[in-house]
Amino acid sequence: MASRYIANTPAEQREMLKTIGAASIEDLLVKIPPKARLSRPLALPPALAEADLVRHMRALAAQNADADRFSCFVGAGSYDHFVPSPINHLILRGEFFTAYTPYQPEASQGTLRTIYEYQTMIAELTGMDVANASIYDGASSLAEAALMAHAATDRREIVLARGVNPLYRQVTETYCEGAGIRLRDVPAPDGVLDLDAARKLVTAKTAALVIQTPNFYGVLEDVAAAAELAHAAGALLVVVADPVNLGVLEGPGRLGADIVVGEGQGLGVPMSFGGPNLGVFAAKSALVRRIPGRLVGATVDRDGARGFVLTLQTREQHIRRAKATSNICTNVALCALMATIYLATLGKQGLQRVGELSTAKAHYTAEQLTKIPGVSLRFAQPFFKEFALRLPKSPTTVVAKLAKRRILPGVPLKTYDRALGDTLLVAVTEQRTREEIDAYAGALAEVLR
Amino acid sequence: MASRYIANTPAEQREMLKTIGAASIEDLLVKIPPKARLSRPLALPPALAEADLVRHMRALAAQNADADRFSCFVGAGSYDHFVPSPINHLILRGEFFTAYTPYQPEASQGTLRTIYEYQTMIAELTGMDVANASIYDGASSLAEAALMAHAATDRREIVLARGVNPLYRQVTETYCEGAGIRLRDVPAPDGVLDLDAARKLVTAKTAALVIQTPNFYGVLEDVAAAAELAHAAGALLVVVADPVNLGVLEGPGRLGADIVVGEGQGLGVPMSFGGPNLGVFAAKSALVRRIPGRLVGATVDRDGARGFVLTLQTREQHIRRAKATSNICTNVALCALMATIYLATLGKQGLQRVGELSTAKAHYTAEQLTKIPGVSLRFAQPFFKEFALRLPKSPTTVVAKLAKRRILPGVPLKTYDRALGDTLLVAVTEQRTREEIDAYAGALAEVLR
Amino acid sequence: MSGAGAYDKLVFELSSPGRVGFSLPESDVPGRPVTELLPKKHLRGAAAALPEVSEFDVVRHYSRLSRMNYGVDTHFYPLGSCTMKYNPKLNEDMARLSGFARLHPLVRDEDAQGALRLMYDLAAMLAEIAGMDAVSLQPAAGAQGEFAGVLMIRAYHQSRGEKRTKVLIPDSAHGTNPASTAIAGYEVVEVKSLPNGEVDVESLAREVGPDVAAFMITVPNTLGMFEPRIMEITEICHARGVQVYMDGANLNAILGITRPGDLGFDVCHFNLHKTFTTPHGGGGPGAGPVGIKSHLAPFLPTPVIVKNGDTYARDWKRPQSIGKLQAFWGNFGMLVRAYTYIRTMGADGLRSVSDNAVLNANYILKRLEADYDVSVPGPCMHECVVSARRQKKQGVTATDIAKRLLDLGFYAPSTYFPLIVEEALMIEPTETESKETLDAFCDAMIQIARETEREPALIHEAPITTPVRRLDQTRAAREPDLTWSPKT
Amino acid sequence: MSGAGAYDKLVFELSSPGRVGFSLPESDVPGRPVTELLPKKHLRGAAAALPEVSEFDVVRHYSRLSRMNYGVDTHFYPLGSCTMKYNPKLNEDMARLSGFARLHPLVRDEDAQGALRLMYDLAAMLAEIAGMDAVSLQPAAGAQGEFAGVLMIRAYHQSRGEKRTKVLIPDSAHGTNPASTAIAGYEVVEVKSLPNGEVDVESLAREVGPDVAAFMITVPNTLGMFEPRIMEITEICHARGVQVYMDGANLNAILGITRPGDLGFDVCHFNLHKTFTTPHGGGGPGAGPVGIKSHLAPFLPTPVIVKNGDTYARDWKRPQSIGKLQAFWGNFGMLVRAYTYIRTMGADGLRSVSDNAVLNANYILKRLEADYDVSVPGPCMHECVVSARRQKKQGVTATDIAKRLLDLGFYAPSTYFPLIVEEALMIEPTETESKETLDAFCDAMIQIARETEREPALIHEAPITTPVRRLDQTRAAREPDLTWSPKT
Ligand SMILES: Cc1ncc(COP(=O)(O)O)c(C=O)c1O
Ligand SMILES: Cc1ncc(COP(=O)(O)O)c(C=O)c1O
Fold first, then answer.
1. Interface residue of B48, B66, B81, B82 to substitute, partner A, most A CBs within 10 Å
2. How far is residue B22's CA from residue B29's CA, in Å, rounded to a whole number?
């Protein structure tokens, strides 16, 4: 049976072979040594017809506890924020969807304009001068920031606050290994950066101090204080921030950050079991020629008309090769487009509302849950849309029990920090209704009884 | 709260009013007499935010026994045929989706070309010379055919075979009422047209004989015989045929039909609780100037380039008004586009396969079901993808019981014909798997035990 | 045009024997081939000459064809009488929920409670919006709504033993009004409008005699004007036993402001594809629900969706019904979209729709009045009609202006409708367009008025940026070429 | 361009204070405003200057912007090394099933069995396709796959107490190869290729010393040629304790024909956005799984998806792992698409992909060989590289040819890559394109070759049909304007 994804018919193949002057396709493969040839068909499951495959995929999908069927209070770096309907419709336009990186700018103005808009919006939200066209995800953005800080300062230590998402720390470690960069951790006994401890760790060897706000526990960090501390030691301040929160929270750039990175998934990108995500990367303009990844700039065409191009490409691997600022090539342009459309749709007022609603609901949830005997907030700190909850029973058991009621109550923190074996990290976005929150509180109370 | 579907802000409104020279929007409504004004807000349910509305709609949708969750063996004019994925993606392209009827052809060549393609495909399938751009649905197509036959022959009787879908008969009756056209029915005691009875009813008063093949009971009619009979009396032969079957079955035009109408929903249009559907309408070229609805024709532009336009518009209401061949204006262009893409995707081989698979599965189903004691085929006639089944228990009860097992076993025919109180009409498309069919047979056997 | 625009294929011209675009499973049931199952005489002699293309051929071909269209999503589309407003993407998502899109029409009421409830509630909301007592959602489009309405009027008169044979319709009416009425078996009498497009009430009063079944009128009328004496008109009609029908195509002007029912209308149809944001789709499908006053309820098309306690059902027992209009219950997919829209907007939102539709139309009217003849002085309602009478004298017609607009990046207004306005350009901006867009459009119109005097060639040559230039309509009609064949 | 193409807005330029495009519910919970819940110092001083536009503004703006792009769906896109094949629409439907798209990454294994099974099975299928022992799906793109692969090699040598500091990479390699290697902490040594693009095996044999950790090579190479002595090369390397890495960007050439693992490679990455039809999306996201031989398994990124009996789990207990590359498990949405594709094609289908990709490339090479210089005589594999050396002498560069192609309705081949071919035009047609399209493209290329001689102005002026003409790159780099501001 011919495949619907392959155009050539046997007759066309013959015709083409005739033009080429070959007797068969085999003849075209002569450069492959016979002993290198695979002598059997690939051992793959049989091809499925479209309808059968759809049935199979539906069955697989049905085995997952998705946020349509379950009440999702899980966060820790991926959030169930609302996605306005037009985003999906617009990104599916083939001209966006099936284009490559805009290397021929005249035939790629659509993509280039959206990236320029994206860069502008991210710079505005983060309070930075420039933003790049995207990095894979928040964690790899942080890793790139660490490498960039190292290159910019020629120092070999990165000091990380304990409030930085531990998964981000792991990725940063992976990336820093090769360059011989050492990571040092500042504890956060009270759920926020221990400034005194930080002051000791941030030295003349420190390339950057990294904090996250709201941090992994949902708690707001004092960015200005961290900036002062870092700058005093000649180090850069890298801030990890979720841009969806920046409708309400101050852009870290205005509080002294030199680099802001973060996970942009909340900006209209589906959670999709953790990827693709959207690595946000923004910096002060002094650092622009060290930025990893693509940048789009405005220019003019031959007739003086406004146009957009990829620019400052000498930073990049395809030109600078081993000396490039980063190895990134394919990024997550389409996720950046989703974020751009999201931010255009939500706009000035909407993004603020998302933040306000999430905060209000998170605080309401915390209130309801902490009414349950034995349940309390782990940290007495101001939090945003996420908070750490101390439970009187094993969080892992609680999660298992609530899953049966179609509630995903949060992330047990034991895996990330042994000291937090009794703690559950709970996230609440504007998507959760009071009904769901009350049901959660009710179910938790029962399960803990 | 401002609406996302309305552009003007209060400031813009003021600016515009200033230009207009009015103090308020109220000032623009002066021609409406005060006593005509509604003095209260409309009593409508409160507006819902996007996320809340989605939740509400999902809840409504979940209350329906759709063909994703239920095994659907229901037909009788709407069929669960497979819809290849690209159709939905392509029709959603805004340039197709949000365009009006192609009155400005230079800015509507996309739509015009697809209609021209559609006309060609439908003419080819039905074996006719021309096809129009669509009518609302199969039933209203038949009604239009009756009016057209009346106009073409100046005769006032339409003879309908009992095998014509009774719902189509009802619609035809509604349409014929005004013109004073009388409908006469030919019985089908054996599930097919009673040719002798037909011969008596088709007279010099008969504008057209109407048959359906496969008919309402799934049985194939002898089109050639009907054509001979009709033509002998100077009447037209109108054939109702489902175009999705015409990959396998002969185009009625080649067997003598003068007009072919039918429901094109099977060609890639979702069942959608019965609408929108796709009224197919094709005719011999002698009748072209009497055809209802829009026609697209090829022509050339000023530079001699090929182009397409709406043509022969003097048939239509916007020009001929009360004397138009039909009152139709808005038709179902987008469903015709779905059908066009469907037919292009399935192509010569694919449409044939759909017919072959449906027939094979229908016959297998009939075999399995009639193995159950007391269950038999109602008519001993060759059938295509649908068949009438005599049950030993009330079909209505059977349907209710099988619904509990997520099987929709067919349509009880009692409502349409009292004589068929024991009969269930079962349709089987290529979508039904052997597993589903066997489950149906098993469940039916149990329920009848 | 070369480059992206230079595409001149039909799908048949991409066909290559043996190429496939589909994927169907092998048969999983035992059995004989179709040639043995069915008598040969029923089988196709030769396989249908459908194209043989790959899935990608299909995707690229139709993607490219789409780019040869202007749509609301890409261009301002000020087509009067058509309410080319934004079609919310959310509506599409909702209509595609499998509980709606994959529901068979002939499942039992018990198995379609969600769908029936949606229909019941939508009918109730439309009734409230129009001030009518009941609404049938069955008509597939405005024209079928008209047909159904006129048939109900007819059945009503018949039920009272009255023989009325005529329906009065203003000369400014849309073509479907007389066409639908004629098909319903009535003689259509065209009523001459006053020069300002309004009904000549005095002359109407003379015409509504005992042989008149109904008076059918569009409100606001097709000049975009509210009929100031409308209540008087409906009263006069009623006094003579004449039913009054309102063509509701222009409902976008009056949501929450005034209601057909309150104006005295007995029947009124809705175009969900105009007022209620269901997409036009290049010509359809739409939906044309028809609302009526209670005296016409016995005649509603079957089935009627009813509510019994907490459950919803299709009621077929309506002995006086005019019957059915479509095989099933209406264009349900469109009903889902309209329902979604109304639930999005609520009462205040709908009122604001009309307020802004009226504001936008008046803004355009004002901005154009210096350069184009205005048939009736404003304020107008949701659309305005200007005339190219002045330009015509300089050799530039409404058609020419329309073509030039295409080059300037706009779709064209409706032209030559209503028939009573010479060189009519009927402009309906809708509430979803922004002031910037209206300004850009008015600038273009004014530019064309200037070009009429200074550079008429630009206009006569137009369009030049479209995939094809002006087309030979005469040839199309004289030598109809309605299907593709290999020789072409 | 005027008409449809004449659009020059950025979304900020559509903004109007107070206009909204969103719809969010009112809060349904009691509580204090955010200004009271949070200390003021954390709150924004001024609202972010995001655009204020309506939903329709958004839809029309981005619809219009999209029309300023060429994409595979609309244009032949023969970009070498990028495998711009058709991206099946079905993949998109599957990735959007809410069980996949709406699944949080941190649910328990028990709550993600379908997702984990899909990943496990996909990894197994990719391993079989490449002849590798295990595959990690975590890398987000090819470059990250390279990085992960090199890190595993590094960890492997370290685990054996070996200090190797260099990685050899041919000069024809893609830029990510040296870049990824450098970030992993290695010194990159560029290996000069033979004039025909092949590895100079003898010289390589001399270079692979005890300080070399790995040799990294693209197969087929970036000239589209299969490396005939590849097995010899991997043997030589292995004999010296050197790991061999295959850049699998060109896997589309060899599916079911030969397998990196069988050729002797220790590591190989996949670009699911090339070979396995996940869309390029204007630059990403993609997915770059990395396959390895078993000796490298201890070093795989965490977590590894494992199967225990009938259940699937994320295994974190990998003490020798190189760690994590992304916060979560990989670009799962892309994995769903690739899985859908592989299950659609099966073994025969994939083999046929490569057969036809190779056939198409050779057809183009043959048709162009008279008019363009061919760097290496055919047969080639899935792509071919021609040189505009000859045209350059007449003043027409590879860039010029690329621009002219845009005017003729085609996207351009990759230009100036590989670096070792002067005025390179790297053409990859893929198997999804039809002969008609290839012919049209070759005709255009030949036309340009003719124009070079007869009408070079046409080429130098190109493009003229695109939304903008040639852009000033120098100005963009000299005066970087990377964000919009109101004054611009
Ligand atoms: C005033 C008026 N009446 C009736 C109609 C007919 O409606 P439909 O096209 O939905 O049949 C139209 C449609 O353009 C119209 O503008
Ligand atoms: C040969 C080769 N290697 C590596 C890469 C990098 O892959 P990615 O863009 O997925 O990071 C590419 C991408 O273009 C390539 O062509």
1. B82
2. 11
SS3 B441: helix
Pairing state between β B411-412 and C134-136: unpaired
Number of CB atoms found within 10 A of residue A44's CB: 19
Sign of CA dihedral A413, A414, A419, A423: positive
Interface predicted TM-score (ipTM) over 0.90: yes
Six token digits for residue D173: 């390699």
Determine the distance in angstroms separating the CA of A58 from the nearest CA of chain B, rounded to an integer: 10
Taking the C-alpha atoms of residue D338 and residue D123, their distance in angstroms, rounded to an integer, is: 11
Whose alpha carbon is nearest atom 8 of ligand 1?
A: C142
Contacts of A85 in chain B (CB under 8 A): 50
pLDDT along chain C (488 residues), means of 10: 67 97 96 93 95 98 98 98 97 98 98 98 98 98 98 98 97 95 96 93 95 97 94 97 98 98 98 98 97 98 97 98 98 98 98 98 98 92 97 97 98 94 97 97 98 96 97 96 86
Cα atoms in the 13 Å half-sphere on the side-chain side of C472: 15
Q: Residue with structure tokens 């409906």? A: C234
Helix (H, G, I), strand (E, B) or coil at C424: strand
CB nearest D286 (choices: A171, A175, A330): A330
Ligand 2 mean position to C2 CA, how many Å? Answer: 32
Q: Which residues pair with D373 in a beta bridge?
A: D387
CA distance C12 to D287: 37
CA of D212 to the centre of ligand 1 (A): 78
Ligand number nearest CA of D143 is 2
Spatial neighbors of D158 by CB under 8 A, at least 6 apart, are: none
The whole-angstrom separation of Cα A7 and Cα D432 is: 6
Chains in contact with chain D (at least 3 beta-carbon pairs closer than 8 A): A, B, C
Q: Which of A408, A413, A411 is nearest to A436 (CA)?
A: A408
For residue A393, report the distance from its CA to the centre of ligand 1, in Å: 67
The pair of three-digit structure tokens given for residue B290, joined into one six-digit string: 């009497």
Residue located via tokens 């109304």: C342
Q: Is C337 in the pocket of ligand 1 (CB under 6 A)?
A: no
Coil, strand or helix at D99: helix
Ligand nearest to the CA of C181: 1
The ligand that comes nearest to the alpha carbon of residue B330 is: 1
For C:228-257, CB contacts with B below 8 A are: 228, 230-231, 254-257
CA B371 to chain centre: 34
Q: If you search the block for the tokens 């993509």, which residue do you land on?
A: A111
Q: How far apart are CA D381 and CA A28, in angstroms?
A: 7
Structure tokens at C480: 């109809």
How does strand A376-377 pair with strand A407-408? unpaired
Ligand 2 site, residue D81, Cβ cutoff 6 A: yes
Nearest CA distance, D205 vs chain A (angstrom): 20
What pLDDT digit, counting tens, does each position of D192-241 carry?
A: 999 899 999 999 999 999 999 999 999 999 999 999 999 999 999 999 99
d(CA C411, CA C79): 8
Give A295 Cα–ligand 1 centroid separation in angstroms.
50
Specify the residue with its C-alpha closest to ligand 2, atom 9: A330
What CA–CA distance (Å, rounded) separates A77 from A427?
10
Strand partners, C78: none
Is residue B426 helix, strand or coil? strand
Judge if the beta carbon of residue B298 lies within 6 A of ligand 1.
Answer: no
Distance CA D451, CA A51 (A): 49
The β-bridge relationship of strands C134-136 and C290-292 is: antiparallel
Ligand 1 pocket residue status of C414, Cβ below 6 Å = no
Question: C245 with C146: CB under 8 angstroms?
Answer: yes
Q: Is the CB of C290 under 6 A from ligand 1?
A: no
CB D59 within 8 Å of CB C86: yes
